[in-house]
Amino acid sequence: MNPGAVIYAIGYAITFFYLVVVDWHETSNFLSWLFCAGVDVFLATIWPVYWAILHWVF
Description:
- By secondary structure, the protein is an all-alpha fold.
- The protein has one domain.
- Helices cover 83% and strands 0% of the residues.
- It contains 3 helices and no strands.
- It has helices at 3-23, 30-45, 47-57.
- Helix 1 (3-23) packs antiparallel against helix 2 (30-45).
- The radius of gyration is 12 Å and the shape is globular.
């Protein structure tokens, strides 16, 4: 297995878990969770960009 793919998968999982925990207190209903889950999946997919730039800006 490619070591880069393993690192990327671990970073994806950690970032997704972090974003879900942060969003836990900001969501109140099912539709909010659907929207936040979609955004969290997207941000977890681009996790190197998220941690390098977006996390510090927002």
